[in-house]
Amino acid sequence: MSAGSERPAAAAPGAVPAPRASRVELRLSCRHLLDRDPLTKSDPSVLLLLRSQNQWVQVDRTEVVRSSLHPVFSKVFTLDYYFEEVQKLRFEVYDTRGPSDLGYQDDDFLGGMECTLGQIVAQKKVTRALLLKFGRNAGKSTITVTAEDISGNNGYVELSFRARKLDDKDLFSKSDPFLELYRVNDDGSEQLVYRTEVVKDNLSPVWEPFKVSLNNLCSCEETRPLKCLVWDHDSRGKHDFIGEFSTTFEEMQKAFGEDQAQWDCVNAKYRQRKRNYKNSGVVILADLKVAIDFTASNGDPRNSCSLHYINPFQPNEYLQALVAVGEICQDYDSDKRFSALGFGARIPPKYEVSHDFAINFNPEDDECEGIQGVVEAYRNCLPRVQLYGPTNVAPVISKVARMAAAEESTGEASQYYILLVLTDGVVTDMADTREAIVRASYLPMSIIIVGVGNADFTDMQTLDGDEGILRSPRGEPALRDIVQFVPFRELKSASPAALAKCVLAEVPRQVVEYFSYRELPPRGLGTHTYDAGPERARQPGVRPVSVSSTLGVP
Fold first, then answer.
1. Angstrom distances, CA of residue 42 to CA of 66, 95, 106, 139
2. Is 204 part of a structural domain of the chain?
3. N or C: which end of the chain has fewer CB within 10 A?
4. CB contact at 8 A, 69 and 42
5. Could you give the angle at which helices 394-408 and 430-440 cross, rounded to 10 degrees?
6. What total of structural domains would you count in the chain?
7. Is the residue at 356 inside a domain?
8. What confidence tens digit (pLDDT) does each residue in 260-284 have?
9. Strand, coil or helix: what is 55?
10. Are residues 109 and 213 both part of a single domain?
11. In-domain check, residue 297
């Protein structure tokens, strides 16, 4: 809410229903690994573990990259991502002693890293230092985990390559070729899609078929450039380059359909040096199959397990919280108009993820008439958006803070803003959220966060200044406590008076602290009243303050 023209604003994380679980692919690479082998380099692989019922459970393991301290792994981990849950992951890197399918008990531990799946999804790319036992750094060793969502499409492609008459790179035997397939990103960088097995002593190898998602292969863009590289494997990790070629998935499909799916494997250095050079062999697409996976249908909003399930006979928990808290807030908003924002959802027309969209889909006027207007906008919004995540709260805090800053720049600050956030998940961008709150503490603004559902909201208490001064990641303290966190599950059965007291009890003090900090003089004569909480504190000589509210719904 804001002081001046009282209008409650609502911001909700991912205010949409859609699959509660999203499919996410994780790719891994490491840099500067410790060298545990006396004669060669380490043979690293990465073990993925998931925290479940207070113990670490092995999920999957990458392939072994032989003799490399800077491995890029071809293996892709596919996980279900629940944005409302804290899914703790652990990545352990080992120098593999035997076959990769054996246990890792005898392997040398090169370091580990822990984080949540939500952190990876939120940042898309996470690089962390590897730690040994007792928290010791593993030298300069790092691991990078990149996340890509594949729930928006369910297409897969199966490819099979073979080659003919490759160059012989070995003196006493034939080449041991393997193929790498890369996707070229928009910034020109290359992302490893797949690395085949090594075919020993063969200049016309046939590699095993492999399946990848269309998102992994080409970001679902059939004209995106792809690059194939062919190498002669070396046990010491110094692979000899044989040649390469470029293509697209569109070209692959067309060429395969016309029985012309083969490409010259070219070594650019040889082409420059040799006058009659043609190629270093030919790579042939032996098979191409496109398949559709229909299993990713979890979390339909029509499912009664969803917090966003619309029951015609009983409001879901979001609506219960929205009405219960919103009707209290609207009493202190002069024009009864609420800015209603959503976050953590894919929105039309392009279905890109947004963390500060108007749930009435009118970015020019995101206000709704009263709480019932917000309820109607929420109901109409659900069928049109895809619930996604993560729970990034910083963008909506920053958006309301910009409005409060514009008000303050007038020199009067006649409006005081209250941001009401309804969220069913633990905040994913905690560092950015802390930074945004610290900045907002200097503005005419308060934040009320209502936790919906049964998630573990322990970390949310750190945002509430009741347990100590909130600080930004850089150590800067908040000027004043502007956040109140309320778990709705503890107040479902509370009376309206008890709910009002819990939700709005700190607002009057926060308003007074702000105007005292700004040393704003009273305006006009006599006694004026401003509404800033359930008790409507009457302060003589203080100018009328209107409350503007913003509601955030996930």
1. 7, 5, 14, 15
2. yes
3. C
4. yes
5. 10
6. 3
7. yes
8. 899 999 999 999 988 899 999 999 9
9. strand
10. no
11. no
- Two tokens at 431? 């560092």
SS3 state of residue 10 = strand
Domain span at 440: 9-15+316-553
Q: What is the pLDDT of residue 500?
A: 67
Tens digits of residue pLDDT in 491-540? 777 776 677 677 777 888 888 888 888 887 544 322 222 222 222 222 22
- Report the relative pairing of strands 445-451 and 137-149 from DSSP bridges: unpaired
Residue 102's contacts (CB-CB under 8 Å, 6 or more residues apart) are: none
CA-to-CA dists, residue 98 to 41, 45, 101, 258, 470, angstroms:
14, 11, 8, 44, 50
| Residues 321, 274 share a domain | no
Distance (Å, whole) CA 216 – CA 254: 20
How are strands ordered across the β-sheet holding 177-184?
190-195, 177-184, 225-232, 240-248
270, 342: one domain: no
Q: Which of helix, strand or coil describes residue 160? A: strand
Query: What are the tens digits of pLDDT across the range 365-394?
Result: 888 888 888 888 888 887 777 766 677 888
- Mean confidence (pLDDT) of the chain: 79
Q: Compute the distance between CA of residue 467 and CA of residue 461 in angstroms, rounded to an integer.
A: 8
> Whole-model pTM above 0.70?
no
The Cα angle at residue 160 between residues 154 and 164, in degrees rounded to 5: 155
Q: Which of 273-282, 326-335, 341-350, 445-454 has the highest mean pLDDT?
A: 273-282
Q: For every residue of 172-202, which 3-state class applies, written as one string?
A: CCCCCEEEEEEEECCCCCEEEEEECCCCCCC
Domain boundary among 149, 164, 191: 149
Answer yes or no: do 118 and 167 share one domain.
Answer: no
- The contacts of residue 45 (CB under 8 Å, 6+ apart) are 61, 62, 63, 64, 65, 73, 93, 94, 96, 100, 107
- Same domain (yes/no): 182, 55: no
- Which range of 238-242, 289-293, 446-450 scores highest in mean pLDDT? It is 238-242
List the beta strands (DSSP E) in 333-383: 337-343, 345-347, 352-354, 357-358, 367-369
- Domain boundary pick from 118, 149, 180: 149
